Amino acid sequence: MTQATLLPPNATALERAVSALGVDVRNIPVPLRTLHDPYQCPAKLLPWLAYQVAVDEWDETWTTQVKRDVIAQSIPLKRIKGTYGAVQRAVSALGISATVQEWYQQAPAGAPYTFRLNIEADQVGYDQRQLSRIVGVVDQAKNLRSHLTGMSLSIRSTSGLRKASAPMAGQELTVQDGTPRYDDGISALDLLVDGAVNGYDATGDAVDELTDIFLSMPTRLSIPTDL
Description:
With 227 residues, the protein is of the alpha+beta class. 40% of the residues lie in helices and 11% in strands. The radius of gyration is 43 Å and the shape is elongated.
């Protein structure tokens, strides 16, 4: 079927080719409503959408989800720009859990019109490049009077407890502490008590005398068989 055209009969081949191309262009869908939605816009068009809403900080290495969140927060962020709430909201758009601690909330209090950023990370921390990007985002969101003096980074582990077993081989050692012991291995604590009460020298002499008595006794007893 021949497409309707407004070209005159004496139109050149080039003009007719351009006209045919224009007809094909009209058939290309242009979803204008979704192009302006950061969560429906095609990922490859996100940089242009970010430019349209004047995103202050942009990094191509961000994940697609972070890019969409940053774009979605751009206009609401500009409404409160220059406040500590804007700083916290800008950092949160990067997928980072952080809280702002103003100078009068610190112990001891910091220098006036300064603040710190407390960042909580899951499992792993952030490298120097990521921290520099966070500082850039903070500088764009804060007011000119306030200054960031430092960041505190804490790591939160989400791993649970695990049970495990492992075979081991070794030797059993007995450590002697110098305490006198009987033949069955029981500590002679009663001797220590006697020594503490009566004196260790006197107790030792008594033990020696008792030992001499036992050694002087016959080693074998004769028991009558007619009992």
